[in-house]
Amino acid sequence: MPTKRERVNRTIRREEIDYLPSQITFADRTRDREIHDALGLPVDITLDEHIGNHLVISLTKHDYPLFFRNDLQLMRELEADGYVRVDEENRVIFDSWGMGIRIGSDGFFACFHPLEKQQSEAFAARWMPERIHEAVTKCMVYKDFRWMLLDRQLPDDTIQVLDETVQKGIDIRKGFVAMLNIKKTQIVEVFQNQKEAGIDRNFKGSAPICSSLKKGTQSGGHFFKMWYDCPDDLKEEFLSRKALPPKTVTGGQRIAQLHPITKEVVHVYASVSDVIKEHRFSRASLYNVIDNEFIAKGYRWVAHS
Question: What are phi and psi of 86, to 5 degrees?
Fold first, then answer.
């Protein structure tokens, strides 16, 4: 019997097949878990497997508002990353193109189009993803391109004049902070963030760490650099001795991986997304495992406070 991949490829090549490949994709992917449970499927069988889907739809974060609009926690996480805007009061999710998708709808309901009513620049600025808005207003590069708001009344062949590009400085507010020795030849320690580095060095706040990062000066007998700015050889040497601290995730739910028999904590993941990425769970399957205390992928899984 041919595999699903072979069956699809044979269909594309118009070759003989045993049956026509099929595909059912639900418009509201947040309902997958309810449907899975209603069908009484075992935890190790996904809904896609049960209904015989032949295609795996890989979504980018720009696509999530369409399929996961009813998962407000996920939408808030995407909003923090600059992919969507959440208007919970009016029950609308605005994607990165400005399209409005109705929260709570069973199907895809695009309830707003930014060009429909020739909206003002003020409206566009309100719902524009934060990083694009910053690129527009501060003349910065985002995703290797310059961005600007255009007057829709101008002819399409109008040549737009851009102001001089402003080079954005390195964002030193987020990420691991490395503490180097006085000769800058070794990473002594790595902290979750500037605050944790300041606490470790017995500073009253994180200002000395921030100043050291910006100016490249000593602070408390050490130099500090963002982890991603450190030379690869220093990072490799540090990782041969120690592990990086756990990631700090704002608004994320940490998930603990437990031994199936002893229930001892094997590993703590910083977010649901990290578990999904590493163990290839669907979000619905992971929640089902947690809620029903099932064993999946050889482990138990619980929300970790």
Answer: -105, 115
Nearest C-alpha neighbor of 75 from the set 29, 25, 131? 29
Virtual torsion, Cα 279, 72, 25, 2, nearest 10 deg: 0
Domain ranges of the chain: 4-25+40-50, 64-146, 177-239, 254-304
For the segment 4-9, the average pLDDT, to the nearest whole number, is: 92
pLDDT attached to residue 80: 78
User: Which tokens go with 3?
Assistant: 């595999």
Burial code (b: 16+ CB inside 10 Å, e: under 16) for 115-154 equals eeeebeeeeeeebbbebbbbbbeebbebeeeebeeeeeee
138 Cβ contact partners less than 8 Å away, ≥ 6 residues apart: 166, 168
pLDDT in tens, 118-158: 666 666 666 666 667 778 888 888 767 888 877 767 887 88
Instruction: Identify whether the C-beta of residue 282 lies closer than 8 Å to the C-beta of residue 272.
Output: no
Backbone conformation region of residue 233, classed left if phi is above 0, alpha if psi is from -120 to 50, else beta: alpha
Place of tokens 């209603």: 38
Please report the pLDDT score of residue 128 as a whole number: 63
**Measuring CA to CA, how many Å separate 176 from each of 117, 197, 213, 243, 274?**
45, 9, 12, 12, 17
